[in-house]
Design a protein that fits this description.
By secondary structure, the protein is an alpha+beta fold. α17 (about 290-310) packs across α23.
Length: about 550
């Protein structure tokens, strides 16, 4: 059955093989920057910073210096596994009443009022301080070059500029950079970001303090406050990156799966896998009505618990240990009806507790086996659409996208609180060594897509390229406050048989079958064979980029 499942996926790209280092990125330019670092003797963590910085310039709709990173890292010489959270806090002056007094029932999505403090640059420095071997200034050089000299916009990237052109035209500093006199960039146009290049040079010279305490911070705060935002220079200066060891984890069919901890919602991956472990997904067959139904119901159960219980662990006593436990999964699994869909409520806890997104994901493994699974984001496409003055830094809109204004909600906005994040990255271990390093952008869709990629390898015997390219499903709603009340909808990539599509509908699912794979995430996966030293890698054809080796 495993071989039959794998043979159902005919890929349009070849799996990449190497005994050296490998980088998989949505940006070919970023992948090249990361490979250059590996070729010069840098390790996976040095390479990851170079890739992140170059993506911050060349993937402006998804990530940037104004965004936030979450990372899982494996250090080969010690065998240690680290998690890193680079999310920023809401302004201390922000609370529910502030927004409700303005007549709002949902958080604003655009402008500086919607931004969290950017954690990206602090995260780069934190990685290098703990695990790097090269200076930040060296690793920023490719990004500086692409910002100052420009880079050619791809066809898929141009689609984002066109769709979000009205957002970018709301703010003069943004329109001056990301539009052509108000018109959208097209494929082959060269995007130059001189102000961002100057900011990167200041950071290269002055380090992390320049971004959070220096001239760059002062200009960002000035622009934010002039635009109606609430941050102070002191809040920027106080920003910190959070590390934890080991990351949260569970087991799935004998493998250990590590995920990013709250405020990341990576725990949903673990909860879904726990629920699915007792289903014979291999026996059900790849992309069958039975296997997709089981996954859809597991996703519905996990998101119901997330929306009821989870928030910033500094503010909310999250029942994380219980939610990712095997006994809780056993309890939740009993609610899945194999012949009918159900609207699931949050599960009862043993102990009560008080009171699209646009993103970019990449992964790096070096010749020695060091590994980084790295996701960073502006939240929605081009974040809040607001460039912070002369810095060229496009701010995220995570505060606007993630917080609730419902009184008593665990994710209600409070001053200094971090919103729950859709961002998550994973590693799967076999015999105490990293085996799979992967992730994808996509908002709430990250959760089912990552589960499907993991299952494609473990349950269906697919290689890295097959696993990320295979047809996959997504369903809404999830956790986004803007769509929580929408009716349930399942969207399928082409590839499921007509008979199975009708079986899904007969189980009560409202199903839409897409005509082509189209856009939908940018999954990346590296598989490591520690005995042979060979790494295999796959990159999603739904997006730009590739897996490249040195």
């Amino acid at each position: 059955m495993v071989r039959d499942s794998a043979s159902q996926v005919n890929t349009g790209r070849s799996t990449v093989y190497t005994k050296g280092g490998v980088v998989a990125s949505i940006s070919p330019l970023a992948a090249s920057a990361g490979l250059g670092v590996l070729a010069d003797g840098g390790n996976a963590f040095d390479s990851a910073v170079a890739v992140a910085a170059t993506e911050a310039v060349t993937v402006p709709s998804g990530c940037g210096l104004g965004g936030e990173p979450f990372v899982i890292m494996y250090e080969a010489k010690t065998g240690r596994v680290f998690g890193m959270n680079g999310s920023g806090k809401a302004p201390l002056a922000a609370n529910r009443d502030y927004f409700v007094r303005q007549g709002l029932d949902k958080m604003p999505l655009d402008g500086p009022i919607a931004a969290a403090i950017p954690g990206e640059v602090h995260g780069w420095a934190a990685i290098l301080d703990r695990l790097g071997t090269m200076p930040l200034a060296r690793l920023l050089q490719p990004a500086i070059g692409y910002a100052e000299d420009g880079y050619a916009v791809s066809a898929k990237s141009a689609t984002g500029f066109e769709i979000l052109n009205s957002k970018l035209n709301q703010f003069p500093d943004s329109a001056a950079i990301f539009t052509k006199n108000g018109a959208s960039f097209r494929a082959g146009d060269v995007l130059v970001q001189k102000n961002l290049g100057r900011t990167l040079r200041r950071v290269a010279d002055g380090g992390v303090d320049e971004f959070y305490r220096g001239e760059t911070a002062r200009e960002m705060v000035r622009a934010i406050r002039a635009g109606g935002g609430l941050y102070t220079e002191a809040e920027f200066a106080a920003h910190e990156t959070t590390w934890y060891e080991p990351p949260i984890s569970t087991t799935y069919r004998g493998h250990t799966v590590y995920e990013t901890a709250p405020p990341s919602q990576g725990h949903l991956i673990l909860q879904m896998l726990n629920i699915l472990e007792d289903f014979d997904l291999a026996g059900m067959g790849f992309y069958s009505a039975e296997s997709v139904h089981a996954m859809l119901e597991a996703k519905s159960l996990a998101f119901a618990d997330r929306n009821r219980y989870m928030g910033d662990p500094d503010f909310i006593a999250n029942p994380l240990d219980e939610l990712i436990s095997k006994p809780f999964a056993d309890q939740r699994r009993k609610l899945i009806d194999p012949i009918s869909t159900t609207v699931h409520e949050p599960g009862p806890l043993a102990a009560p507790i008080p009171g699209d997104d646009n993103t970019s994901y990449f992964c790096v493994v070096d010749k020695d086996g060091n590994a980084a699974s790295f996701i960073h984001s502006l939240s929605m496409g081009f974040g809040g659409g607001f460039v912070a003055g002369t810095t060229g830094v496009l701010l995220n809109n995570r505060v606007g996208r993630g917080f609730s204004l419902v009184d008593g909600h665990p994710n209600v906005i409070e001053g200094g609180k971090r919103t729950m994040h859709t961002l998550n990255a994973y590693m799967v271990f076999k015999d105490d060594k990293p085996w799979l390093v992967g992730g994808t952008p996509g908002g709430d869709r990250q959760i089912p897509w990552n589960v499907q990629v993991i299952s494609n390898v473990i349950d269906h015997g697919m290689d890295a390229q097959q696993a990320v390219e295979a047809p996959r499903w997504v369903s809404t709603p999830g956790s986004d406050p803007a769509s929580l009340d929408d009716p349930l909808l399942v969207e399928l990539d082409p590839g499921m048989s007509v008979i199975d599509v009708e079986k899904l509908r007969a189980k009560g699912h409202k199903v839409n079958v897409k005509s082509a794979l189209g856009q939908g995430g940018s999954a990346k996966l590296i598989e490591i064979d520690f005995e042979s030293g060979v790494k295999t890698a796959g990159s999603d054809p739904r997006s730009d980029g590739h897996a490249a080796t040195v």
